[in-house]
Fold:
Amino acid sequence: MLSRDGISGLVCLATSAVLLTQTFGLPPATVVPIGPAFYPRVVLSILGLLSVILIVLDFRAMRTASAPAAAPTAGPPPNYRLVLATFIEFGLYILLLPPLGFRIATFLFVLSLQVTLEWPRSTKHWLLAIAVAAATSLICYLVFQDYLSLLLPRGTWSNM
Amino acid sequence: MNHYELLLTHMGTVLHLQYLVPLLVGTIAGVIGGALPGVTITMTVIVVLPFTFGLDPLQGLAAMIGVYVGGSAGGSITASLIGIPGTPSAVATTFDGFPMTKKGEAGRSVWVGVWSAFIGGALGGLCLIELTGPFASLALAFGPWEFFSLFVFALSMVAGLVGRSVTKGLLSGAIGLAVTIIGPDPILGVQRFTMGIHPLEGGFDFLPVLIGIFAFAQLMPDVEQLNAYDPTKAVAATKLSLKVSHLSVFWDILCRPFILLWCTFIGIVIGVLPAIGGSAANIMAYDQAKKFSKRPEKFGTGIPEGIMASESSNSANVAGSLMMIMAFGIPGDAVTAVMMGALTIHGIQPGPLFISQHPKIAYGIYAAYLVALPLMVAVIWAGSRAWMRIIMMPKSMLIPIVLVLCVIGAYALSNSMKDVYVLALFCVIGYAMVKARIPLAPLILGVVLGDQIEANLIQAVSTDANPWLFITRPISGAMLAASVLSIGLAVWQHRRETKRRAAAAAEEEDTDF
Structure:
């Protein structure tokens, strides 16, 4: 089975192959000697070639019986549940920004991510998490909207 | 007005509150960001970026220069006090800084680092002021062939030097170039690879890509290990006293002039080389200081030479990076890449004409850099009691705030959600690359230079269709030869290292039996 190098190589190879086929649909050169397809073809060919090299190197590494086994990583194993939860909450935040608006969506995101990353063990911790979420939302809104004149998303549902 | 009169005039400008406040705020943010383990200078400059959109270009740049200078020195505080480098550019500071702290000399450990950074930075600043102009004049003699070859050289060198695998480095650079081919072509505006998706028709803006790539790539490793952090070390460090005689610290540094000058020189050279940055400069300088020392066996036991080497090179590296962006328009590292993005938002293109077309900003950068150095010392001195408490700020609180600022940074670029979706896409790609152990720096340089490589290629071929000119023109040919050489050298070094490791592993196996 391929390792992460081989998988990365395959993903890049597939991407470069798909895009390379699309270059044949681009119009030929008219004004300048090289057309809009020339440079992408060079870049994608290099990407494809490097991907193949990465896959071949991965196969060779697997076949080399004498290759030393990877040393066990120091420290505790990574907590991928937290990573997945962070990705999901971040994705939801981005999706909910236009309907809820910056202030509400940011408050909910900062509060929920704090709680996910470290569950508050007492009422004091809960209050602190709520205060941080409210302060982040309001301070960012005031600084960017009022002081720096940058318009932040206004909610289509909440009108805030 | 001559060179130094202009500099003095702009020093006066930067000392006005209008510029001094952003510079000071940037320096404070830089010191804190640099000192917080896991929050790098790149992350801090990304967080500061949205605050600069509403400011004039020099105000914004002053804030970013403050972050850069403050962050370079801030990383040494945690490196010295708790043995965890605040930034990758302070790794070598832990080798002697932490042992010195354990010997009961916490103040000396921190301040040897800070004053070395100050002196190294000042010497670097002198080079920045003196050499940027001549470099820019040299770049003015470049035609499209030379620029094309220079950009290819920069990319190949970064791809070869960053990370453990040359193939992955080059692959990362190629991915960066591939990002830039999506959207309109530079001559006719023909849409390429947009797949009918309307928001892709403008291509990818560089800043949301950069913010996305670095945001999750740098924060998620902290999330993975969130509950494994042992705060007892940091709690113990809050009780340390940083009181020290600054005269004796100065004597510690000035009685070792060779190490100071040599490591500063290494820092500047590494800064000039594209996208390598302080993370390589401090290790190389430490290694050089050890090689030239009369007492190499003492390195790692808590001697000032080790801290000086790391911090002076690290600080001087900032000047080298600024020189490269101002003279050639090539970012020395991710921080200057963000600065370049901020400049382009204001319609300013860094490169050979930058100093002559925008003297106010160019001299403002010099002045802000020189003013940031004493500010950095003052900020660290004034906050010496508070730093350890700030460093202990829970990651669960910090990460959501940083992510919100990343979203604002992307959204504020064009007041549209399109850039936020691009940010989200590249957050996933950045984290996937970290897990695949593919270095990020070549990708960023590829994204920054991709359009310029294509534009110069087309311009060169349109001027003269003879492709051999890329090789027969001396500077262009030399750059392309250097590109091939740097990749060849990187492959050779990698193979040698692999063989050495295999031999060491075999030897270890023999001793087991």
User: Anything to note?
Assistant: The mean pLDDT of chain A is 89. The radius of gyration of chain A is 25 Å. Residues 4-63 of chain A form one domain. Residues 5 and 58 of chain A are 6 Å apart (CA to CA).
